[in-house]
């Protein structure tokens, strides 16, 4: 987990009668590989994953694969379940009361860890939201008197924030189970031909942990020794509307789901191609900036279902996971210049957009990172401070209680980078500048390298995707 930016695990759910005919040779797991038919069904393709699980793997086993992310509580982490509708994402993340999924297991282990940390004061709190038709809704808000209203995403220092999102302190597993069940019942689901309880929204649960030194926590600024925001995302599944038999309302939801997932795919492609990712295109990718293009550790769990009707979806899902785990150097999110009121930011090197820096070693902190967030023992609604993703502090900044001092004039060396890292970045910048200069001076391409000459075999959805890629390409080219 240390040397890579994004990890990918694959999980095959068990075969059920409704899945129809299934030939086990067409989807099989062996050690850390998974083999499946290509989307045309003409040959077997084998993908290497960091871990892969077959239909017999227990929830505990899958959780054990997530635990390395938790070992170092000082880093932010994101676990994302990805896959087509009915492939087992909600089962994997949420699970059932008999077989709890990753979310309850992570909460339990964080609460267990915090109980055992003597001499420290640990606050654990959660936020939980859903993105339904590209609108953000709070799943923990008090809804007694009012219908839920969409929340806005604002940005501060390049980090998304959601004013008004409920932050709920969690003292015990009992506390968590109670609110989690209510919140899950609120999450929009509907019956489709592929899943009687199909999620119509992406759900993101965020766990915030603060550890303070008991001896000093009463002094001025407080002593936040660490803070981390594990994110646990159960995405809605991509849908083939011929198979789901969606009505008009379901179709509108399905369109929003498919659009946001193709944006997600495009971001991965842009990062791999060394381009600046277009995070702002939809709410999902805006909120996942740090997970995909920033410093958070990220694990994609690619869920797939056995059966002929899932063949294309399985192949696409596994291809997506395969591409995601190829991301090594992530593109740093742009941070605006207006940092006068922010002493830490002014002392930090301001990373350039598109500068490839290895996640955890780069420095990025805001003054809000240092603020003590004290939560009363009841639901609080956050209005003017960080709700999501804004307070991320690398250990190197907080544990020594020393802020990185970097002169503003002259070249800066981000704290934590070795000489070799700096040399590598300079080399990469040089070659990037050269290739960009080449692009600017070259004639516009007459044909795009990634466009198939014969696209008659593409589905309508694939054509739309390709069209969007071309428009992005043209826009980029035009800007250059
Ligand atoms: N590993 C598993 N073991 C047993 N049952 C499973 C497993 N994975 C999924 N299932 C069952 O398969 C069905 C579909 O799973 P689930 O609802 O998690 O799919 P999903 O990917 O979240 O779908 P959607 O995107 O439509 O919400 C459920 O009945 C679930 O209980």
UniProtKB/TrEMBL annotation:
One of its GO terms (molecular function) is microtubule binding. GO terms for cellular component: microtubule associated complex. ATP binds at residues 83-90. Residues 5-327 form the Kinesin motor domain. Residues 338-378, 433-464 are annotated as: Disordered. SUPFAM superfamilies: P-loop containing nucleoside triphosphate hydrolases. Belongs to the TRAFAC class myosin-kinesin ATPase superfamily. Kinesin family. This is Kinesin motor domain-containing protein. It comes from Tremella mesenterica.
């Amino acid at each position: 987990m240390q040397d890579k930016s994004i990890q990918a695990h694959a999980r095959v759910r068990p075969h059920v009668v409704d899945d129809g005919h299934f030939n086990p040779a067409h989807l099989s797991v062996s050690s850390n590989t998974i083999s499946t038919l290509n989307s045309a069904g003409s040959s077997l393709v084998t993908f290497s994953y960091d871990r892969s699980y077959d239909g017999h793997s227990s929830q505990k086993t899958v959780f054990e694969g997530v635990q390395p992310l938790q070992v170092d509580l000082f880093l932010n982490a994101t676990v994302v379940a990805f896959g087509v509708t009915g492939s087992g994402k909600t089962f994997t993340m949420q699970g059932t009361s008999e077989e709890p999924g990753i979310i309850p297991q992570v909460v339990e282990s964080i609460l267990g860890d915090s109980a055992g940390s003597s001499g420290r004061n640990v606050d654990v709190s959660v936020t939980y939201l859903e993105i339904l038709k590209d609108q953000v809704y709070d799943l923990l808000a008090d809804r007694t008197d009012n219908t839920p209203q969409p929340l806005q995403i604002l940005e501060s220092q390049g980090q998304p924030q959601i004013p008004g999102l409920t932050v709920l302190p969690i003292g015990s597993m009992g506390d968590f189970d109670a609110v989690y069940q209510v919140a899950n019942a609120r999450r929009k689901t509907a019956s489709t031909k592929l899943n009687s309880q199909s999620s119509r929204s992406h759900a993101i649960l965020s766990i915030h942990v603060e550890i303070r030194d008991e001896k000093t926590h009463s002094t001025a600024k407080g002593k936040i020794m660490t803070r981390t925001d594990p994110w646990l995302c159960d995405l809605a599944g991509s849908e083939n509307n011929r198979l789901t038999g969606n009505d008009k309302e379901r179709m509108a939801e399905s369109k929003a789901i498919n659009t946001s997932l193709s944006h997600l795919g495009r971001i991965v492609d842009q990062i791999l191609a060394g381009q600046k990712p277009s995070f702002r295109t939809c709410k999902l990718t805006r909120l996942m900036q740090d997970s995909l293009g920033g410093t958070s550790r990220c694990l994609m769990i690619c869920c797939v279902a056995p059966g002929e009707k899932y063949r294309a979806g399985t192949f696409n899902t596994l291809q997506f996971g395969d591409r995601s785990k190829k991301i090594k150097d992530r593109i740093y999110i742009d941070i605006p210049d207006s940092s006068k009121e922010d002493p830490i930011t002014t002392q930090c090197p301001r990373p350039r957009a598109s500068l490839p820096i290895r996640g955890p070693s780069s420095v990025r902190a805001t003054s809000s990172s240092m603020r003590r967030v004290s939560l009363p023992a009841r639901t609080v609604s956050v209005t003017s401070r960080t709700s999501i993703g804004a307070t991320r502090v690398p250990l190197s900044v907080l544990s020594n209680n020393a802020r990185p001092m970097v002169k503003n004039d002259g070249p800066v060396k981000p704290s934590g980078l070795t000489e070799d890292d700096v040399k590598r970045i300079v080399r990469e910048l040089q070659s990037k500048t050269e290739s960009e200069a080449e692009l600017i001076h070259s004639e516009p391409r007459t044909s795009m390298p990634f466009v198939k000459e014969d696209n008659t075999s593409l589905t309508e959805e694939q054509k739309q995707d390709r069209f969007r890629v071309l428009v992005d390409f043209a826009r980029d080219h035009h800007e250059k």
